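Hello, quick one for you while I still have it in my head. A protein chain has come my way and I'm curious about its shape. Can you walk me through what the tokens say about the fold? No rush at all, and the record is pasted right below.
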Amino acid sequence: MISLGAVLTPEKIPGLTDNGFNLYDHEQLSEIHNKLEKIDSGKIAISIMGMPYKCPP
């Protein structure tokens, strides 16, 4: 799961701290890239739930 929240509080969603990625943490970017490269089927969902969020498209 990738969440583009305005406030980083992954502990509020059960399992997100252990199984999610933080796009704003440069140390996690290579791990995110590696995981995405290994996907050979299925779908990736990106959802913007509403304002505010840090980086509007």
The mean pLDDT is 77.
